[in-house]
Write a structure and sequence with these properties.
This protein is α+β, with helices and mostly antiparallel strands and 381 residues long. It has helices at residues 11-22, 29-36, 42-66, 73-94, 101-112, 115-133, 140-214, 219-244, 252-265, 283-304, 336-339, 342-353, and strands at residues 269-271, 308-318, 321-330, 357-362, 368-375. Helix 3 runs antiparallel to helix 4 (73-94), helix 4 (73-94) runs antiparallel to helix 5 (101-112) and helix 9 packs parallel to helix 10 (283-304).
Length: 381
């Protein structure tokens, strides 16, 4: 359940997901057997194998890449249309053994289309399969059985899609609640600090006034009050440092939650990780990454006019040692104005202080890309 609704992380999860999807390739046994029996012409066999290969590639692409989140609707609709066209052409040309391809079209529609569209797309695919299958006599039972399977499997996949989306939303909501709780704890600490400093400063003020009154007639007693003031102020400074040492630095977890909130509020489609990556660098390096994320998201919201923003973390191995890379990329009008600002200038200095590197360049989608790489084993300063 920990990995449900998440893209595969590593080879093991990829193979597990591939195995789960591969079970449903059983409906390809009939087309493969039809080609293997050899009663087709060489040209027909080649064309059938080529069409079946393209069909499987389109199906796996849709199910692997677009079940959890869709960022490129054009690619989805083109792939789904190609999948349907191949199913119709192959089933019409090669016979009833190829009607099982419509099951995959129905599954793909349920996996990628919102429920309001899947409700009529899946029955339409089923009716089209029946129409293609009934062109010949004597296969009514096969068409009926496949029609029921196509309809039920399509709606079942649509339900799985809704479950995956709901799981993702719940995971994000849980992370947001955790961050809100952390922010509330910081507010409580701020109130405690206020009480602490209020007491100390009140005592310092009182003793200062007392020392001022004693100074003309009793300089020795005034000097004692001044010594007390010094002691109180030093103790207050120690207390403040101890209280805030673990809270004043920025964390990636907090900035990720803030980034999702800021981008969503600005109407930007945000692809932001729910949790920071494993194996974070030292505190100073993590703080530098957190500042970089904050500055990049601020530039996206204020300057880019982007409709989509992607935040990714990548672990890299170099000759100098392991690095963690933060990349923030948008599809806006470019970051020329933001790149030249004081914010990124100061950020470059902050990243360099922990042995990291900051790069800015045009993004792959024509927008702006900011990348920060810091050593995983970086030490403060």
């Amino acid at each position: 359940m920990q990995t449900f609704g998440r893209p595969p992380q590593g080879r093991r999860q990829f193979l597990a997901k591939a195995g789960w999807i591969g079970v449903w390739l059983v409906f390809l046994s009939a087309p493969i057997k039809d080609l293997a029996e050899g009663h087709r012409t060489p040209l027909g066999t080649v064309l059938g194998a080529l069409g079946l290969t393209v069909f499987v590639v389109c199906y796996l692409t849709l199910v692997f890449r677009y079940t959890t989140k869709i960022l490129r609707w054009r690619a989805v609709l083109v792939s789904l249309g190609l999948l349907l066209a191949l199913a119709v052409v192959l089933a019409f040309c090669f016979g009833d053994n190829w009607l099982g391809l419509f099951v995959y079209v129905s599954v793909s529609a349920g996996a990628v289309l919102p429920m309001r569209y899947a409700l009529w797309t899946i029955p339409a695919v089923t009716l089209l399969m029946i129409a293609v299958g009934l062109r010949d006599d004597g296969i009514g039972d096969l068409v009926t059985n496949l029609g029921v399977i196509t309809l039920l499997v399509g709606f079942a996949m649509s339900g799985v899609r809704q479950l995956i989306r709901t799981t993702i939303q719940l995971r994000q909501a849980r992370a947001t609640v955790a961050q809100l709780a952390a922010n509330e704890e910081r507010l409580r600490l701020a109130r405690d600090l206020h009480d602490l400093l209020g007491h100390s400063l009140s005592l310092i003020t009182l003793k200062s006034e007392l020392a001022g009154r004693m100074l003309p007639g009793h300089p020795d007693k005034a000097a004692q009050q001044v010594a007390d003031i010094e002691q109180v102020s030093r103790q207050a400074l120690v207390d403040v440092r101890e209280a805030v040492s673990g809270y004043r630095r920025r964390t990636l977890a907090g900035e990720l939650a803030g980034a999702r909130t800021a981008l969503t509020a600005a109407g930007v489609d945000a692809d932001v990780p729910v949790e920071p990556p494993a194996g974070l660098p030292g505190e100073e390096a993590e703080a530098a990454l957190a500042w970089a994320l904050r500055e990049a998201v601020t530039n996206v919201v204020r300057h880019s006019g982007a409709r989509h923003c992607t935040v990714t973390f990548t672990a890299r191995q170099t000759l100098a040692g392991p690095l963690l890379e933060l990349c923030v990329e948008d599809d806006g009008a470019g970051g020329g104005g933001a790149a030249a600002g004081n914010g990124l200038t100061g950020l470059t200095e902050r990243v360099a202080a922990v042995g990291g590197v900051l790069e800015t360049d045009p993004g792959a989608r024509g927008g702006f890309r900011l990348a920060v790489r810091v050593p995983v084993a970086a030490s403060p300063g």
